[in-house]
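Field reference: sequence -> structure
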Amino acid sequence: MAHWSFENDVNNLLRLEGHTRGPAMRWQRKAAEANSCNNSINTSACCSPMKTSNKSFNSSTVKTPSKTPLKTPRTTSKTPGKTPGKTKTPSKTPSGDRFIPSRSTSNFDVGHFKVMNEKKDADDEVLSPTKLEQQKAMAGNLNGGILDSKILSYKSKPPQAPEGYQNNLRVLYSQNKTPGSCRKTIRHIPQLPERILDAPEILDDYYLNLIDWSCNNHLAVSLGGNVYLWNATNGEIQQLLQMENQEDYVASVSWINEGNYLAVGTSNGEVQLWDIAQSKRLRNMTGHAARVGALSWNSFIVSSGSRSGNIHHHDVRVAEHHIATLVGHTQEICGLKWSPDGKYLASGGNDNLLNIWNTTVSNERSSPLHTFTQHQAAVKAVAWCPWQSSILASGGGTADRHIRFWNVNTGTCLNSVDTKSQVCSILWSKEYKELVSAHGFANNQLIIWKYPTMTKVTELTGHTSRVLHMAMSPDGSTVVSAAADETLRLWKCFAVDPQRKKEKTLASSKNSTNKLMRQSIR
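Structure field:
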């Protein structure tokens, strides 16, 4: 105990050598008082007179205000919150014993500079890849998962700001064209037929052509040995003819381009010409040894294809109507179509051949310009492109199921598409770059294709048997399909857009006005 008192005395004496800065702080005095109390307790417990003297020495030393503080803390700007040796701070303190440092002696700028430098040093530390990934994942979660997403994006870089702009972010950019997302890319095609007509006793024969639509909006339909005319404008039905023998039937019908005459091919090898206005047969042209299942007009010449494989040209203006015979097939002709410009005739037969004939018409037997042998079944569906006269589409039967496109100028196959079912008929749209195909086994549907990509636009279903024939209305908006289920269905699948129709009408009226002006000037 004497040794501990001696060290205390030495320390107190050494502190007196320091620079005095006023009286000791309150908490220092409180600590000294606590130490003196402890010393007095220890002194009373010991009987040695030396301890008593030490106690009086210590108490006198602590109570007497020293000229130097015992030990100042590192920061003197704030009074410590807790007093050493006491659990609670007295609620009341004597006035004048609390030390308040001067704010002028504290340099806040230096302290702020040091704090910011320490933070910067911590941010500049090189993090490990694992910590970087953790920070990125945490930032993504806090931002709702849109860390790497873009609010605005451009397909191409925006133009540079003009000279004089100090802040490029304030430059506004605009686009006059309608964005692709706002454009109407898909038109509406009704999936149900506009009208359904009964066609009793229609023949279920793949090689015949039993319907055709005239430019005067009359639909000719062959039902067994009868031919009926349906006026699509007012819905009236008229029976045009009836075969005399019950065994005979009508195998094909075809309208002249002007729409006032109808050619009829019969099962006994005849080609009849009928005047619609008078409901009268004008002439009966013979020459075929078998039924006439295909007909096609080229101005005043009607071409007929028979079961014998021959094609005859008939000039309806002269008494000697037969002017030429085309021999290129060994089996029945089931597809026959003249090109829109009248330069080529396409013929498809049951011998799987597709022949292209030119316009050279003579009494001598001629040979085809091109013979295509790629089809693996009968070629009934033949159709010429309305906006490109040298392009021909053809479809094969059950064993082939393909639609093929040909360039008759070069004699090459442009494309081939597997339709997965029998192709019975093909029609090109007049308003869109599309075509529609009618199918038999096994799906019995109509398919609209986008040309030239040949992607499916839509499928029209409803027939319960194979769709054998198709025809198009004069305005090109409606397609009629005839099937072996003895029904006719009218599909409004190529309706013209009202805005496009208005522009077309204005263009036609402008052309007619210019034509009248030229005539008046002359």
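Note: The chain has two domains: 1-70, 195-509.
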